[in-house]
């Protein structure tokens, strides 16, 4: 018999027996620490106080008070949905603006411009599909001259070469030298296709250079907005140009 039972038997009191612990709580021990109870009690009262404060705030709120979600939210099928603003920039522009700075973008733009100039010098702006045809106007004094006009005779070349706008030698040159270059129709068609591909590449590079210029402008505008000077937005940002701001004039000492 334990000391507690002997003491209870002598005093005539009913002995206290520890109740059996559930199997899930046997690992925690027989008795519960007083400190653990106090921590749980403090946490419970803290949560109750927070709930009472939120209830009081909800009761004190003015139902006619304005807040920005009133104009940015709409009700669809009984659910409030926040209106998403329109993206005025393409995903490629956003990605590049977040990862690169204006110096890198400007460097890439200058490199693209040099490639464009080099490609133009190679092509010499020859005829290609999609390009407006060149016009050569001849002037005459009488209608008889117009009726008797022969373009091959006027250009001093053979009729087979009249349709060319480049590499069109005269009859005197043909008598001295043979015609240089490709003359077979199949080869000419192949060269025309290659020339068209080069013009398509030139068009893509020009569009890429313009996109780089717009990105550089947008990055520079964001840097200018870091200034604390008072400013007013004049024009919104678009996919083809940055936003325009009017800054307050400040005299520099």
TrEMBL record:
<dbReference type="InterPro" id="IPR007144">
    <property type="entry name" value="SSU_processome_Utp11"/>
</dbReference>
<dbReference type="Pfam" id="PF03998">
    <property type="entry name" value="Utp11"/>
</dbReference>
<comment type="similarity">
    <text>Belongs to the UTP11 family.</text>
</comment>
<feature type="region of interest" description="Disordered">
    <location>
        <begin position="1"/>
        <end position="31"/>
    </location>
</feature>
<dbReference type="GO" id="GO:0032040">
    <property type="term" value="C:small-subunit processome"/>
</dbReference>
<keyword id="KW-0698">rRNA processing</keyword>
<dbReference type="GO" id="GO:0006364">
    <property type="term" value="P:rRNA processing"/>
</dbReference>
<keyword id="KW-0539">Nucleus</keyword>
<protein>
    <recommendedName>
        <fullName>Probable U3 small nucleolar RNA-associated protein 11</fullName>
    </recommendedName>
</protein>
<feature type="compositionally biased region" description="Basic residues">
    <location>
        <begin position="7"/>
        <end position="17"/>
    </location>
</feature>
